[in-house]
Amino acid sequence: MPHTPGANASVRAAGAGRLLDEIDRTRAERPVPPHWRETLRAVPRDAFLPERVWLRDGDGGYRPCDRSRDPDGWMAAAYSDAPLITRFVTESDGTRSPSSSASQPSTVLRLLEDARLTDGTQVLEIGTGSGYNAALLCACLGADAVTTIEVDTELAAVARANLAALSYTPTIVNTDGANGWAPNAPYDRILATCSVRAIPAAWLDQSPPGGRIVAPWDSAWCAYGTVGLTRQRDGSGTGRFAGYGSYMLISGQRSDVELYRDVLRDGQTVETSSTRLSPWTVAGAELNLDFHIGLTVPGAWYSWDTETEKAHTRLWLADDMATSWASVDYDGRQGKTFYVTQHGPRRLWDEVATAHDQWLRVGRPSVDRYGLTVTPDTQRAWLDRPDNVVAQRAC
Description:
Elements: H1 5-27, H2 34-42, E1 52-56, E2 62-66, H3 71-78, E3 84-90, E4 96-102, H4 105-114, E5 123-126, H5 132-141, E6 146-149, H6 153-165, E7 171-173, E8 189-192, H7 201-205, E9 212-216, E10 226-231, E11 237-242, E12 271-275, H8 279-282, H9 287-296, E13 300-305, E14 313-319, E15 325-330, E16 338-343, H10 348-361, E17 370-374, E18 378-383, E19 389-394
Parallel strand pairs: 5-6, 5-8, 6-7, 8-9
Antiparallel strand pairs: 1-2, 3-4, 9-10, 10-11, 11-17, 12-16, 13-14, 14-15, 15-16, 17-18, 18-19
């Protein structure tokens, strides 16, 4: 296909149309509002993608898709309602993990809607990435209303070039997004395109009373949910979670512990027991339960192991301080009994089992029944109302 401006414009228009139709189908009773339809048509997603992206391969991994080798497949991916991996990082053990992505358009749209933008709104975006979301903000509000932060120097330069190519000129700052950007504060809206495990104090400080902070949520257990906070006159922020969103964690809140082997050491004393609670029940089968465990069992994460000598399948649990771990074994024969081994000052499997029982007792609540209140000293997660606290941590 010739790369003439007219052909590109027609291909982009057709792609945007297919994308909007796909989003409408997933939203069912809530079609994309007219002003956002116009914005999504005005900002070409393909202009913010590298020549190679990685797509899910259906087997838990990713396959590359190159524009030069498969232009039609690449363009179809660009206008699909799917996240696209744009960069990998190689871990110390040689494992390659996604480090940057182009977010799923329907989720991008949901975040923008939850920000409740109006004319004159001043926005701080945390996580410029390739610049696509910043371009949508510029198209909606004007570039003068948009400040966007990217911690990665190379990525910030790419975003700046992508935005300039379409004549968008927001303020782009290469710094740590957790610190916000005080020179342009206050911001009526702070919108994160990365997830957080705690709301940075700077975001509240740089929001006026009535300002809104929208951020995808993450815990060591589960990357799921989005919180929308309103800044109160006393400097606190409070609001509810919504049941969508799965983003990469903001860099400053990532743990150094990567895999279970980092917590297994010689000479450890272990405690053994058994349980009737299936490990599959609490690890990935029900997102609402996973979200609850993430809130109420802080710093605990899990990993499945199917290559152990003593068990058919093993669920590993560990804390992000690398001081406690647990394993739950299934040998393929034992029916409904599972063997538990625990070590450290925390009995992690007991904590997870308690969280599971609590979730059942309160009626299997969905994510949107939870809320968050953040003060300068504490972060309190609650169920249904702010005084019904289910988890609390110091800031």
